[in-house]
Amino acid sequence: MSDQQPSYMLIPASRRIIAGMVLALANFMVVLDMTIANVSVPHIAGDLGISAAQGTWVITSYAVAEAICVPLTGWLAQRFGTVRVFVTSISGFGLFSLLCGLSPTLDMLVLCRIGQGMCGGPIMPMSQTLLLRLFPPEMRGRAMGTWAMTTLLGPALGPILGGFISDNWSWHWIFFINVPIAVMVTMAALALVSPLETGKRKLPIDGIGLALLIFWVGCLQIMLDIGREHDWFGDPMIVMLVLCSAVGFAAFLIWELTEEHPVVNLRIFRNRGFSSGVIALALCYGAYFASIVVIPQWLQISLGYTATQAGIVTAFTAMSAWAMASFAARALGKIDARIMVSAAVTWLGIMALWRTHWTSSADFWTLALPQLVQGFAMPFFMVPLTTITLGAVAPADTASAAGLQNFLRTMASAVGASVMLTLWENSQRVARSEIVSKLNPGDAQASFAGAGFSPEQARQMIANLVDKESMALAINHLFLLSALALFLSAVVVWISPRPKGRVDASAAH
Questions:
Q1: Cα–Cα dist 464/294, whole Å
Q2: CA geometry: angle 267, 271, 275, nearest 5 deg
Q3: For residue 180, what pLDDT band results from cuts at 50, 70 and 90?
Q4: Membrane-spanning regions, if any (predicted)?
Q5: How far, in Å, CA of 115 to CA of 284, rounded?
Q6: How far apart are CA 351 and CA 105, in angstroms?
Q7: DSSP single-letter state for residue 121
Q8: Contact partners, residue 44, CB within 8 Å, separation at least 6
């Protein structure tokens, strides 16, 4: 690129809009993939002959792989060039999407989802970076607004599209649909945004820090995912994974705090505003993401909803969030960001308490209404919290802070989903024991016998009813715990000082 002219002058004005739409489409594809599989877990589990709990590995493996790759994005862009990293990531995402769809076993599917997450991690920040280079300053606000709309629209359409595809075609197609989009975006990017390529520099890479990060995060997530099936600490393998994760985490902390070029700049945690902000973010986003994993499973397994119906219920949150996004953006700067975040998170906690009254006989709108009302608060939480965390650090540390924030947010989604599923299973066992202890099987069987059921059919009906009610009680318990986590995060955010001035959040996604 010539030093005499800005980057956006290298592309004719007539092609900028098309190039911007291509970049937004790439971002939309990746965001869509975060939620499209959530409602398809029962279909995947049934087809592969695995439990629903094992099926959630498809979600958590993707999130963990993406989280690990996010901190590397800046290094990759400087080492190989922004456009090269973007095009390679899109191509890899399409390839691994194809392999996910072709997977005949859970092992292959999880492995390919890891590859998909590793390729998907750089796409969001790279598409954002290229948009800023593509448009002149006076058009960047509108371009980033379009980009932000794809970020909000993806989670809304993901559950609906995933449910429709799983019900009417096959779960394999939730991955296959990415392939033509990835091919089209790759070709269009090569044709339209190649002039925006940045220079390459040989930069040091913290290989040991990266290896330690992968090691301790991998051990932690495997332990959380398989612990339910291995009696937790009653299994020596789980104990070994816990020890490996703890030792790896301690070694990672020591190494990163002493390394000159760390893969994750942990020194930023010395900033009180940043630390309290990301703690609030992790608590809130972990509770939120876990709910959109658990709710579709409960609706399909216990209430007999189709994947499409479960997707519609789940998607109401993102729909109302999308409608409120512009209001949140206008309010930012006029109202203390801490007030906006605290009020929004408290609102989310109240919605969680609302859900503690769900029953196994709840109708569609009883389930959908809390989802819809919850969404109105989401933009007032996500956008201002980014302002709080990034506004608390020095401008030179903004990129590192954004990468660390995104890493923790994505890790919170994976860990939150695993923890919530474990608590759900444990709560079901406790609730089932309590119901059985108060049940008079003789009277129940007599009632069913009077209705024409055989003794075997009566026993099965009683067992089904007990399971259904225990799952509903467990859901109530989960949302009570979620409400407590959300109310805590609403308080934690006040540890941060009030943001001063405007914050450049372009490094965040």
A1: 20
A2: 95
A3: very high
A4: 17-37, 57-76, 83-102, 114-135, 147-165, 171-193, 205-224, 236-257, 278-299, 305-325, 337-356, 376-394, 474-495
A5: 27
A6: 38
A7: T
A8: 37, 50, 55, 58, 109, 171
